[in-house]
Amino acid sequence: MTDAPHDAATALLASYAQNPRTVAVGARFLPSRSRVIDLIEALRRLTFPGFFGTEPLAEDALEAVTRRRLGELDALLFEQVRHALRYALNRVGEGRGGRGDDCDDCDVEARAVTDAFIARIPEVRRLIGTDVQAAFDGDPATDHTDETVFCYPGIDAIFTHRYAHELCRLRVPMLPRIMSEVAHGETGIDIHPGATIGEGLFIDHGTGIVIGQTCEIGTGVKLYQGVTLGALSTKGGHDRWAGKKRHPTLEDGVTVYGGAIILGGNTVIGKDATVGGSVFLTRSVPPGHTVSMEAPSLKVSPPRVAPEEALRGFDWVI
């Protein structure tokens, strides 16, 4: 073996000391990304019983399985919320081994948060049901709602978001962001857990959609691939803009087609309005109005040589 591993280790150890923001050595309470993924999957099995899992779920076993799964979820969620609350206290002042290590109140709060979250699961599941129906109603390419549950990245993204949003409302640090970024990585749809979304959101295709933290989206909204609901440039730094409305509002029944960019906390897209593809908006649109780009001027040029000449010399035998 050469000296390369030894030299690299020395350099890495020095970099750990130089950049402590990327080091969590000695931290007793850290949220676990792998356990958060387990949490998402536990919620998926509770939300869509029978659809996901290694074995079929018999009807006469549904009650027992549901109660067992809720018990497992309770233990997993309590563990991760407890860690997240203690982690947040230890991060105050960038210190390690701080107040979170001995925070008895954190366990009490974690229990209260876990109970409140679990009590919300039936209502969140109802909301997700409206999203499943909206996906079926809005896409003639699907044959059944089962297909939207199994196959549609928009359903996967909004399913994860609705539960992450509940944790966000309960002021749980870190866990909602981990959940949203797991969904982002799997679907290409980036929804901040702070975004408020009404019933029956239909995300078609979904790739490249961005929904910012302070977005407010009404009922029955349709979003197509590549839509950005974002913020204008936040000059002045983090503290100036934290907690302020920075992202647009979409009222009930709005449709936004592919590639549209809508920016700004004061931007309101009125009820039943339509925003066409590739539109760039930083101002409000009245209810029922349509915003679209003028058709671009296209130029179609003939090939420089005849097609048969362009293909001459190619051997197409495979």
Automatic annotation (TrEMBL):
<keyword id="KW-0012">Acyltransferase</keyword>
<dbReference type="InterPro" id="IPR042122">
    <property type="entry name" value="Ser_AcTrfase_N_sf"/>
</dbReference>
<keyword id="KW-0028">Amino-acid biosynthesis</keyword>
<keyword id="KW-0808">Transferase</keyword>
<dbReference type="InterPro" id="IPR045304">
    <property type="entry name" value="LbH_SAT"/>
</dbReference>
<dbReference type="GO" id="GO:0009001">
    <property type="term" value="F:serine O-acetyltransferase activity"/>
</dbReference>
<dbReference type="InterPro" id="IPR011004">
    <property type="entry name" value="Trimer_LpxA-like_sf"/>
</dbReference>
<dbReference type="GO" id="GO:0008652">
    <property type="term" value="P:amino acid biosynthetic process"/>
</dbReference>
<protein>
    <submittedName>
        <fullName>Serine acetyltransferase</fullName>
        <ecNumber>2.3.1.30</ecNumber>
    </submittedName>
</protein>
